[in-house]
Structures are given as structure tokens and as C-alpha cells.
Amino acid sequence: FTAVRYPYLKRGNYSFLSDRHLGFFQSILSPHQVLTDEFNDLSGYNVDWMHSVRGSSRLVLRPKTTEEVGAILQYCNAQNIAVCPQGGNTGLVGGSVPVFDEVIMSLGLMDAVISVDELSGIAIVQAGCVLEKLETILHLNNLTLPLDLGAKGSCQIGGNVATNAGGIRLLRYGNLHGSVLGLTAVLANGQIMDCLSTNKKDNTGYDLKQLFIGSEGTLGVVTQVALHCPSKPTSVQVGFFGINSFDNVLETLRLSKQNLGEILSSCELIDASSWNCVTSLLKLKSPVNYFPFYILLETSGSNADHDAEKLNSLLEMLLKNGTIVDGTIAVDSTQATSLWALRERIAEALASEGYVYKYDVSVPIRQFYQLVDVMRARLEKLPIRCCGYGHLGDGNLHLNITSQEYSSELLNKIEPFVYDWVSRQRGSVSAEHGLGLKKRDYIEYTKSPTSVHWMRRMKKLFDPNNILNPYKIFPGTLNE
Ligand code: FAD
Ligand code: S2G
Ligand code: ZN
């Protein structure tokens, strides 16, 4: 696929993997940490979650310590070997797999939870820890994660930091630039940058850890994270409302914020087409019948009676004043989970329909759904589906278009039009998934040329040989 969609990409003048290189890696790592295409099936590492980009790496290295990451990068930097850091490989912009034969550095073996302190809420975790595993351990300490996303069964906290993952709780807990107190990162030359602070406040010089949050593996490999985790809510309520118009969607958001206040933790939009996708393709049951729009609301608080009373009176008010037409509130965690599945499994349902053109954009909240209508009118009968869902409370729309298989005619009708449209709204062409390979040509639709110039200068400073995740984030070659 890579060649198909990115014919202009040329392999950089990196070294090709030799027996000498292999010998070095085998001398510092144990056998199960060195996977070669000669003895192992590396396809799972070379293809992204959406099966839309495929690399041809011949080697996967699986370090277990920060020091091993340092030794590997020091060698690769000296030998001009390109490296693609990989976490759970759930990224959606082609950032987590090689473009050509870059060596894959998989953080999966570095999955320890080093410490959890209930009083301070601080957890120190190795980068390769899967989010769901971390959540389970935090819950045992009356804490919870400050982020949650549909990929939590596979994605790793290091990958979440590298992509500054947003997810369904950002409305309540903010993003990782606030929740990450510190991290350890290994630079391209193998130098270990210890920013593993656990201070909530530290104004001593530049806050360098922030550079690695959202850097998509291009400035350094994150090996440890110090995360500030909120107290585990003792009462979680989930409501699911059927709504007739987008104006009433916005009114529902406004009244929910006003009446639920601090306990509101999620406000997700699902349109009729994405609802139809999960109910028809995955056979999921919906307690509310067909409507143009649905809102999934979640509250997270500390007093079940108080919280339930708040949510129930909101539901009554919304029904009474006609803002919503139908609605239900989960009676137990099983029903709450099945309501969440209607939202969190949309991606999976779309992937089962065919080829997916995914646009994760930030737009002004009043225009949240306009782009879907505009694209539907523009594409007419070309796609199977054009749907919109996402993090309404964050102004983050997931516009998804599907076709039987990849079609350049359809792609050319969508891009760059969709990016122009978002750019004219001064939105972001990538709200939470990052730019990776697939969106690298569109960074200047959101960032000024001066900003991109200084980002390139930073990349050159941190990774002068451009061995870390080359071909990602920026268009063209680095020296442009
Ligand atoms: P990978 O996919 O392995 O890598 C992602 C990027 O980070 C790559 O550029 C890689 O090189 C780099 N990287 C990985 N680990 C490290 C490390 N330790 N150090 C340095 N660089 C590293 N994303 C959201 O933001 N919000 C959502 O709601 C959301 N929902 C999703 C739902 C589904 C079903 C799926 C499949 C994906 C979803 N995603 C979402 C996208 C994806 O899960 C996130 O981007 C996630 O943070 C990626 O984590 P990962 O461990 O899989 O990283
Ligand atoms: C989500 C990821 C999947 C998609 O579900 O919130 O971030 O469909 C997305 O884009
Ligand atoms: Zn999302």
C-alpha cells in the first residue's frame, strides 16, 4: 500500500542491515529480544492496525531496559541505521510501522508498573505497559487513568505519550501535556534524557519533557512515564440520548455542562450513519431507535445517589423541552459497557466495511457536523458511507468515509479539499492521532511555516542523522 499511495517516497541513504549489525544486536540482547524475518513472521510489526500501510523491516528489536534502548540507538546512530519505535501498533496515521526497511524497536517487553502512590496519585510506568493493564493496577489503588481510548487493550502508555493521545476522558482530565509529570527518553545518539520528575510543579528552566509528548517517535524513545492519575470515581453513570437535529445536539451539550458541572466526564457524538454501522455490521443492540444523532454522556463522581439524581433530572428536562426525543440511563455497569460499545466499536465496524478514509479533525464546535454534510454532498454516491462521530466536548470530529477498496478517484475528491476546509475554520488537520506518514503533507494546513521551520530545526538538533522514525510528520526530506 505504501508504494501505491506514496510513490514519491524514496528510501533514505541508510545502511542496509548486515550480519555484522545483527551480530552486534545479538551480542547485547538475548535471543527472544531479536526477531529477524529469517526465523520470525514480522508481518504483524510491519503492517498498521488499519492495514493501510506496510513496511518491509527485516528486524525487530525488543529492549527490556532504558540502557538497552540507549545501546541500540547509539549503535544505529553511528551506523546510520533507521529506527521505527513501536508501541501497541494501534496508531491510525501510519506512524508506527516502517516505510521501508527501518529496524523496528518494539517497547512491548518494557511493561512494568514501577510504582503507584494512592495519596499523591503518581504512577511511574515503563513505556511498554498496555493501557488496560495499567488501568487495572490503578483501580486496585483507588486511582484511574486520566485518559481512555478504544485501543486500550493494545496501546501502550509510551505510545499514548508519543501521540499525545486524547480519547474519551479528555473533557474531564485534560490531555497528556498536563497529566504527564515526567518521563525518561533516549535520544537518537543513545543519550538518556532523565526528565522523570514527579513534581506537580517545577519551574526550573524549559519543560523539555513536553517536547516528547506528541513527537511520534521522532525526537526520542520514551522508556518511562510519571503519570498523575485522578482518584477512581466511585460512581459512573452513562446516558444515551436520541436527538433530531444538530442544533439540539449543541443544546444538549450546553445543558449537560450547565447541569452536570464537574461530574461530566464524556460527551461523545454518534451520527445515524455511524450508529447504523455498529448496529448493522457488528449486530450491537441499541436501547434507542433510529435518530439523526445520538449523544453518549458519562458522569464520574463520588456519590451515586447525587450523581444519578443529577443525570436523571437532566434527562427529564431534555425530554420535556424537546431537546432530545428519546433517552436512557444505564442501570448497571453491564449496560454502561454496551452503550460505550456503540461508540468505541465504530472504528472496528468501519474497518469491516472496506477501505476507510479517516479524518480526525478539530473544528469550532458549532461547525462540528458541517464538514460531514459538506463531504456527503461533495462525494454523492462515490463512497459506501460518509459518517461523523467523536469527542463533541473537545470539538474533535472523526469523519470517516468507506469504499469497497482503495480508490484514488475517491481519495482525490476528499483530499486536499477536506484539509482546506478545516484550515479555513482554523481547525487542526489532526486533533489527536498525530501526522505520522499519512498526514505528513498537511502539517502546514494547521501550523505556520515559521513553526514548521523551527520544528525541523529541533528535529535536526535532537536527531542530526534523522534515524528516528524518518519520513514521518514532515513533508519532503528534512533538509528542505
Ligand atoms: P503505536 O501505534 O505503536 O505508535 C504510535 C506512534 O508513537 C508512532 O509514531 C511510534 O513511532 C510512536 N511510539 C510508540 N511508542 C513509543 C515510545 N515508547 N517512544 C517514542 N515513540 C513511540 N487515539 C486517540 O488519540 N484517541 C482515541 O480515542 C483513539 N481511539 C482509538 C480507537 C481504536 C479502535 C484504535 C485502533 C486506535 C485509536 N486511537 C486513538 C489511536 C491510537 O490508539 C493512539 O494513537 C495510541 O496512542 C497509539 O498507541 P500505541 O502504543 O499503539 O502506539
Ligand atoms: C475514536 C479512533 C478510531 C477512529 O474512536 O475516538 O480516535 O475511528 C478514534 O478514528
Ligand atoms: Zn478519538
What would you say this structure looks like, in words?
With 480 residues, the chain is α+β, with helices and mostly antiparallel strands. It has 18 helices and 16 strands. It has helices spanning 2-5, 19-28, 43-46, 66-79, 131-140, 157-163, 170-173, 176-179, 209-212, 246-260, 272-281, 304-320, 333-344, 346-351, 370-379, 408-414, 417-424, 449-462; strands at 34-36, 59-61, 83-86, 103-106, 113-117, 122-126, 180-186, 192-195, 221-228, 235-243, 264-271, 293-301, 326-329, 355-362, 385-391, 396-403. Strands 13-10-12-11-15-16-14 form a seven-stranded antiparallel β-sheet, sandwiched between helices. A hairpin with a 4-residue loop joins strand 15 and strand 16 (396-403). The longest helix is centred in the middle third of the chain and has 17 residues, at 304-320. One of its GO terms (cellular component) is peroxisome. Its EC number is 1.1.99.39.
